[in-house]
Amino acid sequence: MTQAALAAKASVNRVTVAEIETGRKQGSVTTLRALANALGVSLDDLAE
């Protein structure tokens, strides 16, 4: 899944997804939960 597709599915900004993915930014719990839900994984799985 592209960053743009994930961002759209999670209703977050694509730049935010990129920054979290590269470690330049830590996402809020709300943002991380939205990303995990969009990916169909648990928050714990996302953090690994």
Automatic annotation (TrEMBL):
Query: HTH cro/C1-type domain location, by residue?
Result: 1-46
Q: Which SUPFAM superfamilies match?
A: lambda repressor-like DNA-binding domains (SSF47413)
What taxonomic classification does the UniProt entry list for its organism?
Answer: Bacteria, Pseudomonadati, Pseudomonadota, Alphaproteobacteria, Rhodobacterales
Secretion signal, residue range per the UniProt entry: none
Q: Which segments of the protein form a coiled coil according to its record?
A: none
- List the Gene3D superfamilies: lambda repressor-like DNA-binding domains
What is the designated name of this protein?
A: Helix-turn-helix protein
Q: Which domain of life is it from?
A: Bacteria
GO terms of molecular function: DNA binding
Quote the Pfam families the UniProt record gives: HTH_3
